[in-house]
Specification:
This protein has 19 helices and 34 strands. The protein is of the alpha+beta class.
Length: 730
Amino acid sequence: MTSFNDPGMGSFVENSPENHFEEEFQQNPFQEEGLEIDQAELDALEESSPDANIQNIKTLQPIDKKIIDWKWKPIQIARHQVSGSYETVQSGWKLILRVDVDGTGNLRMASFDFFRVGSTTSYWGSFIMRNPTVVYGSTKVTVSGSFTGTKSMWANRAKIEISRNYIFATRASAKVTMMQNSTSGAIYTCAFKSQYFRTLQLETDVEQGTTLFGSYNTGTYSNPGPTRTLNLVSAFQEAGIQMNYTGSNNYINTSEAGSDSRWTESEMHASMVRHFSVYKNSPQWAVWLFAARRAVSNTLLGIMFDYKSSNKPHRQGAAVFQDTLASYFSGNNYTRNQLFTYVHELGHAFNLLHSWDKSRPDSLSWMNYPWGYDNRNGSGQFWANFTFAFDTGELEHLRHGYYNSVVMGGNDWAQGAGLEAPHRHIEDLTADIHDDNSGLRLEIVPIKSSYALGEPVVVEIKLRSRLKDDQRVNAHVHPKYEQVRIGIMKPNGQVMNYEPVGHNCVAVKDAVLTDEKDTLYASAYIGYGRDGFYFDAPGIYKIKGAYRTPDGSVIQSEDVKIRVKSPLNAQEDAIADSYFHDDVGMLFYLMGSDSPSLKNGNDLLKEVSEKHAKNSLSIYADFILGINESMTYKIVDPESQKLQVRKRDLGQATSHLDKVFSESAGDKGIDNITLNWAYRQLADGMLKEGDEKAAVQLMKSMEATFKKKKLKASVMETIKSQINSLLANR
């Protein structure tokens, strides 16, 4: 018997016999006179495979030899291929095997997952065989080679043997022998499960007022790939992934998106918990796809939204915003981009990154951006060359990636994302640019030259035109999008790219820089992201930015330095301890949330606000708490599954934010872009609660504050326009 702690040791008796068809017909199966199959062969075949349908073979009619001068040859009856998934449960272990060595597009790989089975079933480890030795015969396939995996085990090699049954018989089992070098260990007999490598449940819900995507004929426009009709399911089937619908479909009322009828990530997550019929807080092969109308962002086409909380499973839900798609595309082009966006967003749910995040910006893949590819290769080139497929690296991940790196609700977003190590545009920040004729200048400007330890590090990003002529640019200059990258050199010399918690899949946002309005601005909190806290120790940090221009080339900012100071006293040290909690980092990143999973973070911020109210560092806690109280928040009651709405508390919001406004009236406090947004966020809440007078007064205060700061005339015009737009919608 095998050791309970190692599924590779020991030996097993195979738990089910296999149907072996090891010998082919060696003699003429037909009698010359009547062209009948040899009866002895038929009897043997029927006895060994009683399920085989051989009646048609038995009743073949003679063919007139005068018509055809027949040359007698043995019949070549087709046999099954062996690629697909296999499964067994033996002696406390569940083994799921994937063999990928024949058929169109095979990757010449095998992989397997082990689970411990008892009163509960728990994942143990995953393993991959790359470039194994494959002996492919007419009656049997043997796959053998070394493997690597997530855990150490006694075995370091495996041999997989699969008979190729006749096509009218059932598929044969796979015999898996675990080995340490040439010594055999445990033997597993895995029954054939599916021609697909992985199978999951898909549920598709639709917002009222829109419809779910159907299908698209790839031959509608010319491309080098085969013409076929694709829908969401068949697109993944071509990648070797089977999706089965749960059979539960809901029409979701727009009221769940709030009074603005536009969806936020938290609203979508609440709806998923409420409507997804197989939802649970643990890893499972199940995903929720929501066909919605519009997100809060006017350019957001789709999103894998379930990635932002560190305390609940990621990658369970995705959404496509169909009204936004329709505003960019029409006719057959709309249908084509619907299909693309559906597949792209569900690709993220499998933990697939964008192509450029893996140093493959020119990949003709579902995971690229068509317009990003065209910026580098010429207009229309993506669709002219795209074959409606994932690239090889992505297929490896989908079919053979380690279980937790692929399964929905497993690893957090981007952890283990792809078998190849992602390489996130560090070349943009280190390239030696000899000649810059872009006419653009990128500036990364820290709000302060020095920060207290734990203080949120915020930078302004400025994209300026250096020309008098108008310049068209992509206006997405915040690093949560893909155009701007920010590199950070830490005091110990370690170089990291700032990575937002999640990337939004957006359409190009065109803007024109003119002689009068020559700069685009964004304010970005870069203290916390996908890799946790970036400025977590005292010392000198160096920051550099890169912007990818519409033609695909890169411009870089100058290096800037900031200093993170050691705490001056016990109070600052205590505040730093509170601010360096992951939940607080996430709240700073989200700029407020009432998610139950972030309750500990909100409690810490309340403690800082109350206990250290006189310390200047406490305004960041007040900012997050005030913004959060100015918004409604939707959650789903875990028992009743009813949607609950936490109402605004404008009294508390005003109390917190008035302190922020006062501290930021001069050169201290939060930056001007964030200050502007905070004023308008509170005023918007006042308007939605019917307090028009308070909103108007707050906007007058905002305008007066920025006048005292003596901002550029063009900036003040923008602020006035923002105020007028907000009040006009009251």
